[in-house]
Amino acid sequence: MKDYSIPLKLVSILSDGEFHSGEQLGIALGMSRAAINKHIQTIKSWGLDVYTVTGKGYSLPAPIQLLDEAVILAQLDNSRLAVIPVTDSTNQYLLERMAELKSGDACIAEYQQAGRGRRGRQWFSPFGANLYMSMYWRLEQGPAAAMGLSLVIGIVMTEVLQELGAKEVRVKWPNDLYLHDRKLAGILVELTGKTGDAAQLVIGAGINLAMRTPDESVVNQGWINLQEAGVKIDRNELAARLINRLREALSQFEQEGFAPFIDRWAALDNFIDRPVKLIMGDREVHGIARGIDKQGGLLLEQDGEVKSWVGGEISLRPQ
Prior knowledge:
The chain has 319 residues and is α+β, with helices and mostly antiparallel strands. It is 27% helix and 27% strand. The protein contains 8 helices and 14 strands. Strands 3-4-5-9-8-7-6 form a 7-stranded mixed β-sheet. A hairpin with a 2-residue loop joins strand 7 and strand 8 (182-192). Helix 2 (22-29) crosses helix 3.
């Protein structure tokens, strides 16, 4: 793994949003101004905007709150958490360590170099702007028992965000969070295990907190962040509360299945009773969203008839 200790120290110094001269930074880090500039280029490549002003030095556009491992661990019921400043992806980090993990083990990162979304898409992951988190869970009942799990994750994330002040966040079937009809967060569940064996799950989540202008070649749909919506949330409190609540919910899901979560979904459904279209490859199906069934399938009404739809390749869009 590449040593990022110097760029990370630079980010820590600059996180106050004030200007720091190249000379000051050089003294603090024991290197030349030319070397400082080289590391500034690294943190720019992480998606951080760095202002460079002659005579004043370097500054971020605004202060940023960095993840604080000690603060997060102090709020956790179970301390099995890895806080990683820079990683390829939080899901990949756990997938590579599955043999040594226990259900509920989690990791969070400041920056993902190769964050993943659904269907092989890239998840845009600038440093320090959002929350990138993954959790491991083992279901002894096997892969079939995972039906509806991504909906459970969405319910918990939405409820936690609402509790922390984002009152208008809603769920979008099967695995997104929406705010004002734009995407606020996404969920990626990666499952391994054959029928008859236990299912090993890595559950990834990305929440847009203060994301700046994204790369349009990566982000191809309407998105929003909480900052734009006027909601400020403490990243460390959010991470700790999410991890605690997800562990509780997944234990309940493992014991009781999806049934206890159906009413909770109904109260949060962004598209309930609205005209929608399902997109499956080249095919589109139009209808009225009527919630979900007991297995977590989407109920779609067409010509007075309600049919359930399931499957990872289905997308939902306002009509």
